[in-house]
Amino acid sequence: MTTYMNLQLIKESKKSSEKDHTDHFLNDVLTGLQSTPKHLSSKYFYDKTGDELFQKIMAMPEYYLTRCELDIFKNKTSEIAKGIRADQEPFDLIELGAGDAMKSTYLLKHLSEIGTDFTYMPIDISGNILSVLEKNLKRQLPAIDIELLEGEYFEMLEKAMTLSSRRKVILFLGGNIGNMSRKEAEKFCIALYQLLNKEDIVLIGFDLKKNPYTVLNAYSDKSGITAAFNLNLLSRINRELDGNFNIADFQHYESYDPITGACKSFLISLRDQKVNIAGQLISFEENEVIDMEVSQKFSRSEIRKLAEKTGFRITGEIADSKDWFIDSIWKVS
Ligand SMILES: C[S@@+](CC[C@H](N)C(=O)[O-])C[C@H]1O[C@@H](n2cnc3c(N)ncnc32)[C@H](O)[C@@H]1O
User: What Gene3D superfamilies does its record include (predicted)?
Assistant: First the structure.
Protein backbone atom coordinates (compact mmCIF):
# COMPACT_ATOMS: atom_id res chain seq x y z
CA MET A 1 0.00 0.00 0.00
CA THR A 2 2.79 2.42 1.03
CA THR A 3 4.75 1.54 -2.13
CA TYR A 4 1.66 2.16 -4.27
CA MET A 5 1.13 5.57 -2.59
CA ASN A 6 4.82 6.47 -3.09
CA LEU A 7 4.56 5.54 -6.77
CA GLN A 8 1.47 7.75 -7.13
CA LEU A 9 3.34 10.65 -5.45
CA ILE A 10 6.34 10.22 -7.77
CA LYS A 11 4.02 10.14 -10.83
CA GLU A 12 2.16 13.25 -9.65
CA SER A 13 5.36 15.20 -8.94
CA LYS A 14 6.75 14.17 -12.38
CA LYS A 15 3.50 15.36 -14.01
CA SER A 16 3.64 18.70 -12.18
CA SER A 17 7.31 19.29 -13.12
CA GLU A 18 6.47 18.47 -16.79
CA LYS A 19 3.62 20.99 -16.60
CA ASP A 20 5.98 23.64 -15.11
CA HIS A 21 8.43 22.98 -17.95
CA THR A 22 5.69 23.38 -20.61
CA ASP A 23 4.41 26.58 -18.93
CA HIS A 24 7.94 28.09 -18.96
CA PHE A 25 8.50 27.01 -22.56
CA LEU A 26 5.18 28.54 -23.70
CA ASN A 27 5.78 31.75 -21.76
CA ASP A 28 9.33 32.18 -23.18
CA VAL A 29 8.16 31.42 -26.74
CA LEU A 30 5.22 33.87 -26.63
CA THR A 31 7.31 36.61 -24.96
CA GLY A 32 10.10 36.14 -27.52
CA LEU A 33 7.80 36.14 -30.56
CA GLN A 34 5.82 39.15 -29.32
CA SER A 35 9.05 41.20 -28.91
CA THR A 36 10.77 43.40 -31.47
CA PRO A 37 12.96 41.97 -32.93
CA LYS A 38 11.49 38.49 -32.48
CA HIS A 39 13.72 35.99 -30.69
CA LEU A 40 13.69 32.41 -29.34
CA SER A 41 16.00 30.90 -26.71
CA SER A 42 18.48 28.35 -28.08
CA LYS A 43 18.22 26.34 -24.85
CA TYR A 44 14.98 24.95 -26.35
CA PHE A 45 16.83 23.49 -29.38
CA TYR A 46 17.49 20.29 -27.43
CA ASP A 47 14.58 17.85 -27.56
CA LYS A 48 15.23 14.29 -28.82
CA THR A 49 15.36 15.40 -32.49
CA GLY A 50 17.49 18.46 -31.56
CA ASP A 51 19.93 16.27 -29.59
CA GLU A 52 20.30 13.92 -32.59
CA LEU A 53 20.80 16.84 -34.99
CA PHE A 54 23.44 18.37 -32.67
CA GLN A 55 25.32 15.04 -32.63
CA LYS A 56 25.30 15.21 -36.47
CA ILE A 57 26.57 18.82 -36.31
CA MET A 58 29.49 17.72 -34.12
CA ALA A 59 30.48 15.17 -36.79
CA MET A 60 30.29 17.65 -39.72
CA PRO A 61 33.60 18.49 -41.45
CA GLU A 62 32.81 22.24 -41.20
CA TYR A 63 32.13 22.18 -37.43
CA TYR A 64 35.73 22.46 -36.19
CA LEU A 65 34.80 23.24 -32.55
CA THR A 66 34.25 19.64 -31.39
CA ARG A 67 37.38 18.36 -33.15
CA CYS A 68 39.52 21.14 -31.60
CA GLU A 69 38.28 20.54 -28.06
CA LEU A 70 38.50 16.79 -28.58
CA ASP A 71 42.17 17.30 -29.54
CA ILE A 72 42.65 18.99 -26.14
CA PHE A 73 40.75 16.34 -24.15
CA LYS A 74 42.43 13.42 -25.98
CA ASN A 75 46.01 14.70 -26.16
CA LYS A 76 46.38 17.04 -23.17
CA THR A 77 44.36 15.06 -20.64
CA SER A 78 47.08 14.98 -17.99
CA GLU A 79 47.57 18.77 -18.30
CA ILE A 80 43.83 19.23 -17.64
CA ALA A 81 43.97 16.80 -14.72
CA LYS A 82 46.93 18.68 -13.20
CA GLY A 83 45.04 21.96 -13.58
CA ILE A 84 41.93 20.76 -11.74
CA ARG A 85 43.29 18.42 -9.05
CA ALA A 86 44.41 19.79 -5.69
CA ASP A 87 46.38 17.81 -3.07
CA GLN A 88 44.69 14.50 -4.03
CA GLU A 89 41.55 15.72 -2.20
CA PRO A 90 38.24 14.20 -3.41
CA PHE A 91 36.01 16.54 -5.42
CA ASP A 92 32.78 16.82 -7.38
CA LEU A 93 33.26 17.22 -11.14
CA ILE A 94 30.18 19.08 -12.38
CA GLU A 95 29.63 19.52 -16.12
CA LEU A 96 27.22 22.26 -17.23
CA GLY A 97 25.30 21.43 -20.42
CA ALA A 98 27.15 18.10 -20.63
CA GLY A 99 25.39 16.85 -23.79
CA ASP A 100 26.67 13.34 -24.60
CA ALA A 101 29.95 14.05 -22.66
CA MET A 102 31.94 12.66 -25.58
CA LYS A 103 34.97 14.90 -24.84
CA SER A 104 34.86 14.83 -21.03
CA THR A 105 34.79 11.01 -21.07
CA TYR A 106 38.55 11.12 -21.89
CA LEU A 107 39.14 13.15 -18.71
CA LEU A 108 36.90 10.86 -16.61
CA LYS A 109 38.84 7.82 -17.84
CA HIS A 110 42.20 9.44 -17.06
CA LEU A 111 41.09 10.59 -13.59
CA SER A 112 39.89 7.12 -12.66
CA GLU A 113 43.06 5.49 -14.06
CA ILE A 114 45.23 7.68 -11.79
CA GLY A 115 43.06 6.80 -8.81
CA THR A 116 41.28 10.14 -8.27
CA ASP A 117 38.33 10.17 -5.88
CA PHE A 118 35.56 12.14 -7.58
CA THR A 119 31.86 12.10 -8.40
CA TYR A 120 30.83 13.12 -11.91
CA MET A 121 27.68 15.29 -11.96
CA PRO A 122 26.51 16.11 -15.50
CA ILE A 123 23.83 18.83 -15.68
CA ASP A 124 21.64 19.15 -18.76
CA ILE A 125 18.21 20.56 -19.55
CA SER A 126 17.65 17.63 -21.94
CA GLY A 127 16.64 14.45 -20.10
CA ASN A 128 17.02 12.58 -23.39
CA ILE A 129 20.73 13.39 -23.82
CA LEU A 130 21.38 12.58 -20.14
CA SER A 131 20.06 9.06 -20.72
CA VAL A 132 22.31 8.72 -23.80
CA LEU A 133 25.25 9.92 -21.64
CA GLU A 134 24.39 7.50 -18.81
CA LYS A 135 24.16 4.55 -21.19
CA ASN A 136 27.54 5.40 -22.80
CA LEU A 137 29.30 5.91 -19.46
CA LYS A 138 27.88 2.73 -17.92
CA ARG A 139 29.31 0.84 -20.90
CA GLN A 140 32.70 2.62 -21.04
CA LEU A 141 33.43 3.43 -17.38
CA PRO A 142 31.11 1.31 -15.20
CA ALA A 143 33.05 2.00 -11.98
CA ILE A 144 32.59 5.78 -12.06
CA ASP A 145 30.46 7.45 -9.41
CA ILE A 146 27.85 9.45 -11.33
CA GLU A 147 24.90 11.69 -10.32
CA LEU A 148 22.69 12.88 -13.21
CA LEU A 149 21.13 16.32 -12.74
CA GLU A 150 18.35 17.17 -15.21
CA GLY A 151 17.42 20.85 -15.37
CA GLU A 152 18.69 24.43 -15.77
CA TYR A 153 22.35 25.27 -15.02
CA PHE A 154 21.91 27.18 -11.77
CA GLU A 155 18.91 25.30 -10.40
CA MET A 156 20.93 22.06 -10.67
CA LEU A 157 24.19 23.65 -9.48
CA GLU A 158 22.42 24.73 -6.31
CA LYS A 159 21.15 21.16 -5.92
CA ALA A 160 24.71 19.84 -6.43
CA MET A 161 25.94 22.17 -3.66
CA THR A 162 23.48 20.52 -1.25
CA LEU A 163 24.51 16.97 -2.23
CA SER A 164 28.06 17.24 -0.87
CA SER A 165 30.46 19.76 0.63
CA ARG A 166 33.45 18.55 -1.40
CA ARG A 167 35.50 20.95 -3.53
CA LYS A 168 33.80 21.69 -6.85
CA VAL A 169 35.35 21.58 -10.31
CA ILE A 170 33.03 22.94 -13.00
CA LEU A 171 33.37 22.05 -16.70
CA PHE A 172 31.63 24.34 -19.20
CA LEU A 173 32.73 23.05 -22.60
CA GLY A 174 32.00 23.32 -26.29
CA GLY A 175 31.72 27.08 -26.43
CA ASN A 176 28.44 26.96 -24.45
CA ILE A 177 29.46 30.30 -22.91
CA GLY A 178 29.41 31.66 -26.46
CA ASN A 179 25.66 31.02 -26.60
CA MET A 180 25.25 34.01 -24.28
CA SER A 181 25.50 37.70 -25.14
CA ARG A 182 28.50 39.46 -23.57
CA LYS A 183 26.28 40.91 -20.82
CA GLU A 184 24.66 37.52 -20.13
CA ALA A 185 28.10 35.84 -20.00
CA GLU A 186 29.26 38.40 -17.43
CA LYS A 187 26.14 37.92 -15.30
CA PHE A 188 26.56 34.14 -15.60
CA CYS A 189 30.21 34.24 -14.43
CA ILE A 190 29.39 36.56 -11.53
CA ALA A 191 26.56 34.24 -10.40
CA LEU A 192 28.93 31.27 -10.69
CA TYR A 193 31.61 33.07 -8.66
CA GLN A 194 29.07 33.89 -5.94
CA LEU A 195 27.88 30.30 -5.69
CA LEU A 196 31.34 28.70 -5.53
CA ASN A 197 33.88 28.60 -2.70
CA LYS A 198 37.56 29.49 -2.45
CA GLU A 199 39.75 26.88 -4.25
CA ASP A 200 36.87 25.75 -6.51
CA ILE A 201 37.81 25.63 -10.18
CA VAL A 202 36.01 26.36 -13.44
CA LEU A 203 37.26 25.11 -16.81
CA ILE A 204 35.59 27.03 -19.65
CA GLY A 205 35.84 26.37 -23.39
CA PHE A 206 36.25 29.48 -25.58
CA ASP A 207 36.19 29.48 -29.37
CA LEU A 208 38.84 31.95 -30.55
CA LYS A 209 38.37 34.56 -33.30
CA LYS A 210 39.81 33.20 -36.54
CA ASN A 211 39.37 33.48 -40.32
CA PRO A 212 35.76 34.70 -40.68
CA TYR A 213 35.02 32.17 -43.46
CA THR A 214 36.05 29.28 -41.19
CA VAL A 215 33.62 30.50 -38.54
CA LEU A 216 30.75 31.22 -40.93
CA ASN A 217 31.08 27.84 -42.71
CA ALA A 218 30.86 25.99 -39.37
CA TYR A 219 27.33 27.34 -38.86
CA SER A 220 26.05 27.32 -42.44
CA ASP A 221 26.94 23.86 -43.77
CA LYS A 222 25.93 22.98 -47.31
CA SER A 223 24.22 19.75 -46.20
CA GLY A 224 21.60 21.80 -44.31
CA ILE A 225 22.02 20.12 -40.90
CA THR A 226 22.40 23.46 -39.05
CA ALA A 227 19.32 24.78 -40.87
CA ALA A 228 17.36 21.67 -39.80
CA PHE A 229 18.62 22.14 -36.22
CA ASN A 230 17.23 25.71 -36.12
CA LEU A 231 13.96 24.81 -37.89
CA ASN A 232 13.43 21.92 -35.46
CA LEU A 233 12.60 24.46 -32.75
CA LEU A 234 9.57 25.55 -34.80
CA SER A 235 8.57 21.88 -35.19
CA ARG A 236 9.04 21.43 -31.42
CA ILE A 237 6.67 24.37 -30.80
CA ASN A 238 4.15 22.66 -33.12
CA ARG A 239 4.54 19.35 -31.25
CA GLU A 240 4.62 20.55 -27.65
CA LEU A 241 2.78 23.89 -27.68
CA ASP A 242 0.05 23.20 -30.20
CA GLY A 243 1.59 25.50 -32.83
CA ASN A 244 0.96 25.51 -36.58
CA PHE A 245 4.21 26.79 -38.11
CA ASN A 246 4.59 25.79 -41.76
CA ILE A 247 8.30 24.94 -41.65
CA ALA A 248 8.73 25.44 -45.42
CA ASP A 249 7.79 29.12 -44.94
CA PHE A 250 11.00 29.79 -42.95
CA GLN A 251 14.65 29.81 -44.03
CA HIS A 252 17.88 29.66 -42.02
CA TYR A 253 20.34 32.56 -42.30
CA GLU A 254 23.77 32.88 -40.65
CA SER A 255 25.91 35.99 -40.16
CA TYR A 256 29.35 36.61 -38.64
CA ASP A 257 30.76 39.95 -37.53
CA PRO A 258 34.54 39.48 -37.21
CA ILE A 259 34.88 42.68 -35.17
CA THR A 260 32.45 41.83 -32.36
CA GLY A 261 33.01 38.07 -32.81
CA ALA A 262 29.25 37.40 -32.84
CA CYS A 263 28.14 34.58 -35.14
CA LYS A 264 24.34 34.71 -35.26
CA SER A 265 21.61 32.34 -36.49
CA PHE A 266 18.27 33.65 -37.71
CA LEU A 267 15.14 32.22 -39.29
CA ILE A 268 13.59 34.37 -42.05
CA SER A 269 9.85 34.41 -42.64
CA LEU A 270 9.46 33.87 -46.41
CA ARG A 271 6.03 35.53 -46.60
CA ASP A 272 3.48 37.57 -44.65
CA GLN A 273 1.86 35.00 -42.37
CA LYS A 274 0.08 34.38 -39.08
CA VAL A 275 1.02 31.49 -36.81
CA ASN A 276 -1.21 30.12 -34.05
CA ILE A 277 0.56 29.01 -30.85
CA ALA A 278 -1.68 27.65 -28.07
CA GLY A 279 -4.50 29.94 -29.25
CA GLN A 280 -2.34 33.10 -29.65
CA LEU A 281 -1.85 34.54 -33.15
CA ILE A 282 1.65 35.77 -34.03
CA SER A 283 2.07 37.87 -37.20
CA PHE A 284 5.19 37.70 -39.37
CA GLU A 285 5.98 40.08 -42.22
CA GLU A 286 7.76 38.83 -45.32
CA ASN A 287 11.56 38.83 -44.60
CA GLU A 288 11.08 39.46 -40.88
CA VAL A 289 13.62 37.43 -38.88
CA ILE A 290 13.62 35.47 -35.62
CA ASP A 291 16.92 35.81 -33.71
CA MET A 292 17.70 32.18 -32.76
CA GLU A 293 21.23 31.89 -31.33
CA VAL A 294 24.54 33.66 -30.86
CA SER A 295 27.86 31.77 -30.95
CA GLN A 296 30.32 34.31 -29.63
CA LYS A 297 34.03 34.16 -30.59
CA PHE A 298 36.69 35.61 -28.28
CA SER A 299 40.19 37.03 -28.32
CA ARG A 300 42.57 36.10 -25.49
CA SER A 301 42.37 39.62 -24.07
CA GLU A 302 38.53 39.44 -24.04
CA ILE A 303 38.76 36.18 -22.06
CA ARG A 304 41.20 37.78 -19.59
CA LYS A 305 38.88 40.76 -19.13
CA LEU A 306 35.86 38.50 -18.55
CA ALA A 307 37.71 36.55 -15.84
CA GLU A 308 39.03 39.71 -14.13
CA LYS A 309 35.69 41.52 -14.26
CA THR A 310 33.84 38.61 -12.65
CA GLY A 311 36.30 37.89 -9.82
CA PHE A 312 38.14 34.82 -11.16
CA ARG A 313 41.91 34.30 -11.51
CA ILE A 314 43.15 32.50 -14.64
CA THR A 315 45.49 29.69 -13.59
CA GLY A 316 45.94 27.89 -16.90
CA GLU A 317 45.16 27.84 -20.59
CA ILE A 318 45.18 24.77 -22.82
CA ALA A 319 44.94 25.25 -26.58
CA ASP A 320 44.41 22.75 -29.41
CA SER A 321 47.19 22.15 -31.94
CA LYS A 322 45.72 24.70 -34.41
CA ASP A 323 45.30 27.34 -31.67
CA TRP A 324 41.64 27.77 -32.67
CA PHE A 325 40.02 26.87 -29.32
CA ILE A 326 41.11 27.12 -25.70
CA ASP A 327 40.06 25.62 -22.40
CA SER A 328 40.77 28.28 -19.82
CA ILE A 329 41.18 27.28 -16.15
CA TRP A 330 39.81 29.77 -13.62
CA LYS A 331 40.11 29.72 -9.87
CA VAL A 332 37.90 31.31 -7.23
CA SER A 333 40.38 33.29 -5.16
C1 LIG B 1 25.93 23.07 -27.75
S2 LIG B 1 25.52 21.68 -26.76
C3 LIG B 1 27.14 21.31 -26.13
C4 LIG B 1 27.24 20.02 -25.39
C5 LIG B 1 28.61 19.76 -24.74
N6 LIG B 1 28.91 20.76 -23.73
C7 LIG B 1 29.72 19.71 -25.76
O8 LIG B 1 30.64 20.50 -25.66
O9 LIG B 1 29.68 18.83 -26.63
C10 LIG B 1 24.72 22.44 -25.41
C11 LIG B 1 24.15 21.51 -24.35
O12 LIG B 1 23.78 22.34 -23.22
C13 LIG B 1 22.44 22.05 -22.81
N14 LIG B 1 21.86 23.32 -22.33
C15 LIG B 1 21.64 24.45 -23.04
N16 LIG B 1 21.13 25.42 -22.25
C17 LIG B 1 21.02 24.88 -21.00
C18 LIG B 1 20.58 25.40 -19.74
N19 LIG B 1 20.15 26.65 -19.63
N20 LIG B 1 20.63 24.58 -18.66
C21 LIG B 1 21.08 23.29 -18.78
N22 LIG B 1 21.51 22.75 -19.95
C23 LIG B 1 21.49 23.54 -21.05
C24 LIG B 1 21.76 21.49 -24.06
O25 LIG B 1 20.68 20.64 -23.76
C26 LIG B 1 22.91 20.77 -24.77
O27 LIG B 1 23.00 19.41 -24.40
Answer: Vaccinia Virus protein VP39
